[in-house]
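FIELD: query
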Amino acid sequence: MSDLYKTLIGGRWKEGKELLEVTNKYTGEVIGSVSLTDKETFEEAIKSAKDGFSLISNMPAYERSKILEKTSVKIGEEKEKIARIIAMEAGKAWKQAKAEVERAVQTFKFASEEAKSIHGETVPMDAAVGGEKRIGFFLRFPVGIVGAISPFNFPLNLVAHKVAPAIAAGCSVVLKPASTTPLISLKLGEIMMEAGLPDGALNIIIGSGSTVGNWLVTDPRVAMITFTGSPPVGRDIKGKSGLKKVTLELGSNSACIIDESANLNLAVPRCITGSFAYAGQVCISIQRIYIHKKIFDEFTQRFLKGTESLKLGDPLNPETDVSPMITEEDAKRTESWVNEAVSDGAKILIGGKREKNFYHPTVLTNVKPDMKVMATEIFAPVVCFVSFDDFSDAVRMADDSIYGLQAGVYTSDIEKAFQAIKGIKVGGVIVNDVPTYRADQMPYGGVKESGIGREGLKFAIEEMTDIKMVVFNLQK
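FIELD: result
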């Protein structure tokens, strides 16, 4: 029998009239029933967030810091239990689920430190004619209620990247987690309340994007929306959000360049991980690898050998490398895209097989730039190999995308590294590592169809605060 989960509204756990069943993505078994949010409960959440904002915004920075620090510690203390929830509801392999929990510990720790470092700057007023005998400076103030809409693929740490900086900044939050993975958000709410978070500072609502998500985006009492998801939904949010601040972390089809001078002992295993971790359901998962023709065969042979050794199976098994996709429909879509590419001339070197919601790690060659598997985010364990002769061509091909989140480049040539840094229009270039690399304190976000704004605690706090200019006229 599954557990019944209530939603967090105004510091209290509220049971809804309708329930949403949450399943184990490997077994299909129902592991929990969550109270869905109706319009009445949504109104309660917004009112509670308004009251919560009064409390959290007037709380001294050191007290907010203590709450975030305690949250970090409590997550660490319950690491095994939390990782188990992630493995079941998200279908994430155990080793990857544990890594996500460890990252969330860091994320809240970084937020606790940043909460004590929010500051403004002085402005030299006498630099302008008429500014004589004036002193100016600006301060940062929390924007208000933050509406956070999080995805399924990192159900703890991507929630942390929205909630933690908001609390650090003095904002209250109304959180809508993905309907497929809401349990870990409710667990986080429980932990944060135990850590001393004021009532109403975090409210959690459950429901579909078309209903609950839309209410959140369009409500004029919400000052900012922070969203991670697909470009079409991001565009819809931007269109409906009015004059709200928005941070949009959207899609990608991340490229990695393997120059002839690359260290393959480092590049191959990292590229395998970057391509297939969490079944490729990562925004910065590698989808395109451009390999110098002189090392193409060797890289490919090593990559295929490493891929063959990956273990598919139960996410709760510590030996599992590749877990199921979030739904069978997503696995079927992946199968359709790969089959379409093959019918258009692509060649499968390994994989290309679906078993219910498992899709086997797949490598394609003979691909064309306009194929879906190359041009659109596949969000699946599929990677395309393309050879190149001239490094400039590799940079051009890597940049030839509607997305611009992160790119990787393996090279021992510093000039080529900077050529890639300058030539690929993305939010981040990772040199001698895969584009899948992310440290939680760094600025993270994209350009083009990959979104607007930046996450990373310091940078998210800047998005979640408003600048207020102050000028003193000293003339008597």
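FIELD: remark
The chain has two domains: 3-250+450-469, 255-439.
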